[in-house]
Write a structure and sequence with these properties.
With 237 residues, the protein is an alpha+beta fold. The protein has helices at residues 58-75, 96-112, 126-135, 222-236, and strands at residues 12-16, 52-57, 82-84, 89-92, 147-154, 158-159, 165-172, 175-182, 185-191, 211-213, 215-217. It binds zinc ion.
């Protein structure tokens, strides 16, 4: 079978689309985010475990795992990462190349996956461009397929975690946008060829390794208000 990234005829691994660590509660022992995880009884049980598929060869898996390990370390307050609390959070010292390639690899995997969970992600002509960026380990500049991250807070400023939701396609201005929910954040990708017109660029990771991440209360988002209604409906059944 052909690997969905390098295109070579190789034995394929049972690849995950979303890295395992996003399924686990985000726990930051040093409370660098100034937020604490939900307690055991409060955890939301919408985890979609086992989103795996024969997708990539061993070599491509190894390449992507380097980015994943790095992103995991950022979420857990790794060395060289400086976080200034406040709203927005300011994070500095990020390895632009690894973090950006991770963001692109997540979008790419979702796009090439045949699982229903990712059916809304279709990148059209951008798929081959993103594939080439990954193959060449070229993260592009900050406005190439930028990803905005918004951290979601629950009551008591607890970070929402353990919730992974099917990506949605939306329109923002004239841009096609894909919204993922994982790791306690919205990951909002702008996929268009005119992303140089994207505004609020300070919220996009830049080449110097700095990003601002706004914190948003779940109840202030349309998405979570709707989700809450559906939960109520669901549990009444
Ligand atoms: Zn491969």
């Amino acid at each position: 079978m052909k690997c969905k990234l390098c295109g070579q005829e190789k034995k394929l691994r049972n690849s995950h689309i979303i890295p395992e660590f996003f399924y686990k509660p985000m726990y930051d022992e040093k409370h660098r985010f100034n937020v604490i995880p939900l307690s055991e009884g409060q955890k939301l049980h919408f985890k979609q475990k086992g989103l795996r598929e024969k997708l990539l060869c061993e070599d491509c898996e190894v390449q992507l795992s380097v980015y994943e390990k790095y992103v995991r370390s950022v979420f857990y307050g790794g060395t060289g990462i400086y976080i200034t609390n406040g709203n927005p959070l300011k994070i500095e010292g990020i390895d632009y190349k690894k973090f950006k390639l991770f963001q692109l690899s997540l979008l790419y995997r979702a796009a090439v996956s045949s699982l229903d969970f990712f059916q809304n992600v279709a990148l059209g002509p951008h798929l081959i461009k993103i594939r080439n960026m990954l193959l060449n380990e070229n993260p592009g500049n900050k406005l190439d397929y930028p990803c905005f991250m918004v951290m979601i807070l629950m009551e008591g400023n607890k970070i929402l975690d353990g919730l992974i939701y099917p990506p949605q396609m939306m329109r923002v201005d004239a841009h096609r946008v894909y919204r993922f929910i994982l790791g306690g954040c919205f990951w909002i990708y702008f996929v268009s060829s005119h992303t140089n017109q994207v505004v609020y660029t300070e919220f996009i990771l830049d080449e110097s390794g700095k990003v601002l991440i706004p914190l948003k209360k779940a109840e202030d988002t349309h998405f979570f208000r709707e989700l809450a209604k559906n939960i109520v409906k669901f549990t009444k059944k």
